[in-house]
Design a protein that fits this description.
34% helix; 4 helices; alpha+beta
């Protein structure tokens, strides 16, 4: 049986493990100390965001990482679905779809006006899932500047 619940502070190591798997799969290099800090801060302060953990028979099998931002475009608080991950051997079993449904329910309850996300260009399977759930493609490119703090 699959259950999806909000992660609590004590779940930080579970979230870290799943997030590291996600980042390794997508060749994203973030050091463990940075991830640990970010996860623990988000779990301490729901105003920053939430994690939804999917479990099968109490075993963690996936998660959704959601952060919050105030946007002018959406006219208020908005959710950014930063990461969605399911263990590779369990993909195509509807778990990602369940995580998206739970994300929609939780962010709606929290008053979010929209959910935004990004997908790597070659990740057609993920695009199909999001499109099936009602997301639509925006004509934009995401850019980032990493700031140095001394």
């Amino acid at each position: 049986m699959i259950t999806i619940q909000k992660a609590v502070e004590e779940d930080w190591a579970i979230v870290l493990d799943l997030l590291q798997r996600q980042f390794t799969e997508h060749q994203i290099d973030v050091d463990e100390a940075t991830l640990t800090f970010a996860i623990q801060e988000e779990l301490r302060n729901e105003k920053l965001g939430i994690f939804l953990l999917a479990r099968q028979d109490e075993r963690p099998i996936g998660f959704a990482a959601i952060v919050f931002t105030w946007t002018l475009e959406h006219g208020g608080n908005s959710a950014w679905l930063e990461e969605l991950y399911v263990l590779p051997k369990l993909r195509s079993a509807g778990i990602g779809s369940q995580l998206i449904d739970a994300t929609i329910v939780e962010t709606t309850k929290l008053g979010c006006k929209a959910i935004d996300l990004e997908v790597e260009e070659e990740h057609e399977r993920a695009e199909h899932l999001y499109q099936h759930k009602g997301f639509h493609l925006l004509n934009r490119r995401r850019w980032a500047l990493i700031l140095e703090h001394k």
